[in-house]
Specification:
By secondary structure, the chain is α+β, with helices and mostly antiparallel strands. It has helices at about 15-35, 55-60, 75-90, and strands at about 5-15, 40-45, 65-75, 110-115. The longest helix has 17 residues, at about 15-35.
Length: about 120
């Protein structure tokens, strides 16, 4: 199938939604300019705590927060590695360091995935 996806989940304080939207919009532009095929960020609308696990439990969601679920699509793992290296050096994203993010980066998680099924 040939596509590769970086996926991530993070807790976002509701008071920081607009600041995060601005950062995410810029990040999406930068990733796509460097070659990503798609960049998507979604905000929770119907995610309830589960009995065993859930999106809120995965990020230890606090009362004043919501969940963001996002992904970036690449042609391949090699392209992902190449593009991410360029993105990390892009000066437009220099202000996005862990100390100034509008969310708790310690409760964010991410990973790379090979495309398995596409319908």
């Amino acid at each position: 199938m040939g596509r590769y996806v970086d996926g991530y989940i993070l807790p976002l304080p509701k008071k920081n939604i607009e600041a995060y939207r601005e950062q995410a919009t810029l990040a999406g532009k930068v990733w796509k300019e460097h070659g990503a095929l798609d960049y998507v960020e979604c905000i929770a609308e119907d995610v309830k705590p589960g009995k065993v696990t859930s999106f809120p439990q995965a990020v230890k969601l606090e009362e004043d927060e919501t969940v963001v679920f996002g992904w970036v699509v690449f042609e391949s793992r090699a392209e992902r590695d190449r593009i991410n290296a360029l993105v990390m050096q892009d000066p437009r994203l220099a202000g996005m360091n862990p100390k100034t993010l509008p969310f708790d980066g310690m409760r964010m998680f991410w990973g790379g995935f090979e495309l398995f099924v596409a319908a």
